[in-house]
Amino acid sequence: MEKSEVLLEVKDLKTYFYTDDGVVKAVDGMSYTIHKGEVLGLVGESGCGKSVSAMSILGLIDVPGKIVGGEIIFKGENLVGKTPEQLRKIRGAEISMIFQEPMSALNPVFTIGDQIMEAILIHQDVSEEEAKNKTIELLGLVGIPEPERRFNQYPHELSGGMRQRVMIAMAMSCNPDLLISDEATTALDVTIQAQILELMKDLQKRTGMAVLFITHDLALVAEMANSVYVAYTGKIVESGDVVSIFRRPRHPYTYGLLSSIPNLVSEKTKTPLPAIEGMVPNPYHMPLGCHFNPRCPFATERCRKEMPELAEIENNHFVRCFHPVLVNESEVVS
Amino acid sequence: MRNYVIRRILQMIPLFLGVAIVTFAVLSLVGDPFAQMAINPRIRPEDIQRLKHAWGFDLPWYLRFFKWFWSMITGNWGVSIFAGGKPVVEIVARAISYTLRFSIASLIFAFVIAVPIGIYSALHQYTLFDYVFTFFAFFGMSMPTFWFGFILMMIFGLRLNWLPIGGVMTPGMESAPFFARMLDQVKYMVLPVIVLSLFGMGSWMRYARSSMLEVIRQDYVRTARAKGLPERTVIFKHALRNALIPIVTLLGLTLPGIISGATITETVFSIPGMGRLTVDAMLSNDYPVAMVCLLLESTLLIVGNLIADLLYAVVDPRIRYS
Amino acid sequence: MAIDITTSEETLTGRIETYWSIVGKRLRKHKLAMLSLVVLILVIAICIVGPFISPYKFSELGSIEEVLQPPSLRHWLGTDELGRDVLTRLFYGGRVSLLVGFSSVFSALIVGIIIGAYAGYYGGVLDTILMRFTDIMFSIPVLPLLIVLASVIPGAGVWKIVLVIAIFGWMTDARIVRGMFLSLRENEYVEAAKAVGVSNSRIIWRHILPNSLAPIIVSATLGVGGNIIYEAALSYLGFGVMPPTPSWGNMLQNAQYAMAIAPWLVWSPGLAMFITVLAFNYLGDGLRDAMDPRLYR
Fold this sequence. Notes:
The complex is a heterotrimer.
Chain A: E1 6-19, E2 22-35, E3 39-43, H1 50-58, E4 65-74, E5 77-78, H2 84-90, E6 95-98, H3 102-105, H4 112-123, H5 128-141, H6 147-151, H7 160-172, E7 178-182, H8 190-207, E8 210-215, H9 218-224, E9 227-232, E10 235-241, H10 242-247, H11 252-259, H12 262-266, E11 311-314, E12 317-319, H13 329-332
Parallel strand pairs in A: 3-8, 3-9, 6-7, 7-8
Antiparallel strand pairs in A: 1-2, 1-4, 4-5, 9-10, 10-12, 11-12
Chain B: H1 2-29, H2 45-54, H3 61-73, H4 88-123, H5 128-142, H6 145-159, H7 178-216, H8 219-226, H9 231-260, H10 263-268, H11 274-283, H12 287-315, H13 317-321
Helix pairs in contact in B: 1-12, 4-5, 4-7, 4-9, 5-7, 6-7, 7-9, 8-9, 9-12, 11-12
Chain C: H1 9-13, H2 19-29, H3 31-53, H4 86-122, H5 124-138, H6 142-152, H7 158-167, H8 171-184, H9 188-195, H10 200-208, H11 213-237, H12 248-253, H13 255-258, H14 264-291
């Protein structure tokens, strides 16, 4: 895919949480770039810092969390250091976000129409009447039947999939340049999940907005994204376009994640790598050296002492590893 | 909504019957309330017989229950055995009128002060303000009511001599001009209202605080922020509306207390209200008065529960339609 | 196909700790709760040891010169209207008040747990019956009926008060326990236990109850403080612990009439009670925070 203009550039972002038990470096020097109209997949296990980095972009990090370093350049302006009021004007208008739990993400005491209209009225100079029409139009756009009737319904009267559609309508209400989807389909049934993904893809194509697609599920990334960033313990460990990541994963962690997707690896190869052993390290006690070394089958003495840098291993394919996995391409290709 | 109201009202009926049975049973434990009248030589045996018949003490207990229950719900409450045979309705109404002025004043006082403080505390968690009022709330909840009453009496009544230490008005003020009479009665209200509010204030404050704390970490508050709403809209529209749901419910549950009174505080400050009337009637075996008081109070509790549920349905759309 | 990601506490943090050791650690960080615990231990210790050290007996009447004496070296907290040493009575009264507080909560808890557990576990008709009964008990004005019971149940001992308070004190516990059982009985480990043929009563007592202890412990801690005030209120009205046995409540009973001439009679029992109840409330609050499962993030 040819690269267009840069929309958002996260540079060496550091978001730390200062808790009673110590400092948690939730995001520790993460960098990624999203171009206009691009879908970027950010992948990792819970606690890898992917959601925190998204909340940092929106300026929604609460005490005890704090952005302690790095830049978030959005349309040429650094969002870090902007006043809360400036950030508020960007939120929901130019960058909007949908969350994991459609059940609890909508306010139970207001109608869904109210909640979508509110976003429009805040950011656009329109009358209530226009906002209402726009809302009904949006509800139709995201595939909600009988939008006029639904307008006056409360969230509890809608199914999970419908609620996520409402969330999407709300996020789309001001034609954002960037949509952040944080595990937006994780809580849904598989069939509903497919429908919601289809809707997001469709809307993305129609509007040309960029999407930051956050998930723990690599299979979804393959379906949605143009480029992929894999995060582990607050750092990017591998990045590249979707083809090179899926065909030639070089970081043992990415390799492990991929090998646990049955139809991609296990069924093809006779000797599948076992799923990644061990667990995400305690955020208060990160291992020395490469943070992945306790779980890595290829770890050496050097890995236990030094943190590798992110290095370009082939054109536009970066890996943070001293001993990148060498994969026979034919083995992995599905 | 209408179906919900009807269903809730129908559910009250067996509860009401159950409460009536338990009340009746407990008072029956005391035995024949008219037995001790026989010792008094000034009461004629015919009168005792007449009373026993009127209250069904010549019937088996289950018939006596129905007879009593019927006269209760038809408003045929009879007359007091003592107090010169005054109608029970009159005695109870008078006691309620005293209780109301203290309870309403203290409820408003507690609610209006405590709920905003609690919410402010939640929004400024772990600040000096929060710590000070959290301590105050615990202070209020840990203070034995009557002891707090004693202390106020000792300081403001006995030492400073600013306020009267008991009763409801200065003797002889009944015929004073309106404003002088009001002022006099307000003076008698100050200390009891403070005592009555203290516990409520503490618990309202804690309740409002924890309710708000619970709400501001909900996902929909994050959604509201992600929409780019101004912080005051996030707090005062999205969060507050939800935080008020449990507060309103609790308000409904405190309503019965407004009429049934607070026995302890009424005792400390010699207020002839409902709480004191109930206890006195039971102690003096004034059977007609005691039965009415008890049943009235339990009815109020049940009605209070109903009001709490209905308020709940008003503020929370999830209840309304299910 | 989702990658298997376990989200249990241990996995996320790498801590292999039991729930209770985490609770203990978090409670130790709650300064006010720890201070309260120390205060409570001190109060209990003083009440136990005090009477042995005191040169007076709690019912020992003083001579006429010793009636209503203000605090002095001989009587640190003064004497009451019968010339009895207030400090000594405060120790004994503390024993009685604490005993009433603890044992009434304990008895109410047993009733509440049994009713709540069976209602929540079995559900259906049993649940309906038990919960309607709980509703009825909740809808009865407690104080007047407490007074009737106190006058009907024979005897004048401390245990009568415990019984009376417990009879009207189990409903909240029952509702809490029922709520916990309703949600816990759906859990996998209960299904698993059923599948391998564990008896219902064993599931209730060995599998579900230990997992619903947190809210019960909080409610019990707050309850002890609440019941100490309850006893005091009953005693103040003349239906609680009967003289000459002192309790913090009945020591205040006569204080009201003597407050103009002997304010020290008002101060000491009330202050002792206030500090104790405050400590129970703070401790309960600290426990609630320490056990709050939502704070595990």
